[in-house]
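Hello forum,

I keep getting stuck at the same step: I have a sequence, I want structure tokens, and every attempt I make locally crashes halfway through. Rather than fight my setup again tonight, could one of you with a working pipeline run this one for me? It's a single chain of 216 residues.
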Amino acid sequence: MAEQFVTYFGYGSLVNRDTRPAHEQAFPARLYGWRRVWGHRVRTVAAPSSDERGSCCSLSIEKCTVNPIKNDTHSNNSKTRSSAYIDGVIVNIPLADLPALDNRELGYDRLQIPAIEFDLPPSCVAKHIHVYVSDMTHSGRSNIQYPILQSYIDCVLAGYCAVFEQSGMQQFVESTLGWDGVIENERCNPRYPRAVQLPDSQLALFDDVVNKHRSN
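Reply #2:
Ran it on my machine without issues. Output:
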């Protein structure tokens, strides 16, 4: 019997190659009709439950209602698509690897979104794409108790620079909601479990882009 596979869409840290297993290959994709938001409250497993510093806010996505547009770039038939979109990556994994991914994405509901709502590479034949969305008990914006970790921001933006270049990283910042929340700069002692080492020049670029956006 042929091995079964599933395809998922990553729109945050999963875009960064260094956060995924070495054997996984990712390809750029675009999801229409959704927007990205700092809106998933979680506790880090390393911190005691009574320690507020054991909490943080990470990324989720939410469905949005916007004016439709016509898009026929990837089809002979014109498609009506939302003008809102999220750039990310799709990854095809064996079905047996899905529980490990679910465990990484604790507190999220795994949805199956029809492939028609995406721009996908021609090699993708999946009819549905798995996407993780914060569940009701974990949804919430960043605050003092649930800050956005700077090391998490760095990981995500580095991934977008690598896949979508600097312009794609800037588009990520500009299109993501919730930057007015609390950001905790813990670069010297990262609490994000998949923190990456980056050159000072790249960190300075990220700070410049984010700070300018937050000041607008």
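Residues 12 and 112 are 18 Å apart (CA to CA). If your local run keeps crashing, start a new thread with the error log.
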